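Please study the protein below:
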Amino acid sequence: MIGAGPAGLIAAEEMGKAGLRVTVYDRMPSAGRKFLLAGRGGLNLTHGEPFGDFLRRYGERAEALRAVLESFPPAKLREWSEELGQKTFEGSSGRIFPEAFKASPLLRAWLRKLDETGVSFEFRHRWLGWDDAGALSFDTPKGRIATKAEAVVLALGGASWPRLGSDGAWAEMLSQRGIDLAPLQPANSGFKVEWSPLFRDRFQGTPLKRIALSFGDVSVRGEATIAAYGIEGGAVYALSSRLREEVVANGSATLLISLRPDLDREALAARLAASRGKQSFSNFLRKTANLSPVAVALLQEWAAKEHRRLTEMQPDELASLVNALPVTLTGIAAVETAISTAGGIRFEELDENFMLRKLPGVFAAGEMLDWEAPTGGYLLQASFATGVAAGRGVPRWLSR
């Protein structure tokens, strides 16, 4: 087993339960580094929406993942957590968390269970591929070693957050062995915007709350954050796959921001038609339209680029702008900063046991596979489910 993230650990658990002797190798000093980071602000394990809606969150890979998600659905993941002594609850948004809210109590209980199952660990072991004899090769603090395995599950993650263990180096190793891979790309990522220096320096790190973002025929409500390089945050991530495709295809994408999605154009225009008296126009917008300072600054940023004056716009036109403010995205944030990655091993390369057809005895799970999903519990759920599938596939293959 190579990779000590959620997919790797659950695969190791399944193999251990089947009576196999399992060793988990990882290049980091301890297990679950990215898992712990994901739980820093509250571990969102999965989501409680109806399964059909849940499955659609995986977009073009929904059918490829259907069987594993049906075999290990959100309810099973909750049961698993509770068997480890970590009860779960469903929040108002449908997101499911452990009652402890953090990842660390769950991970500690999980590692104890793995130890009881007989699973062993070898940390600071960086996988280098296979040697000439077909053994697994590792770079360790004591030098290079090789080890033979009857079967191996690869769960090495994508290419985001490389400092936590997943750097995507495996892609070249597998490609050299004839495995067809979709290119690794940022998912749940931010996007570059050419902010003016004044706006960037004043508002980087500032949240945009209770907004709606739209691209094409899709609109989502939530929050975003102004970044020095552009814009990021949950609402942006929900649209990131579509935005990424547009930027890759055409070099840019236009994101529409609704700063007051709770007010329709007519109601907002009526407010903006009021006399502003001696107020500055910025104060008028803040008070009359209930816009935050960063929202007002975004309008001013647009006006400066378009060589327009907000004060000369009619209430109807200004109301339309407030709720459909165009922001041009000029690039995608670096993959290293993304929450997850798209691309990886194409599902056509896998058999029903999640074994690579071209590499008998080599299985794959988790973010290495060619799927993506928004935040909200969908990433972890599919990582667990594919890990379970691979972990159950190994003993089936060995007993063939």
User: Anything to note?
Assistant: The CA atoms of residues 51 and 326 lie 34 Å apart.
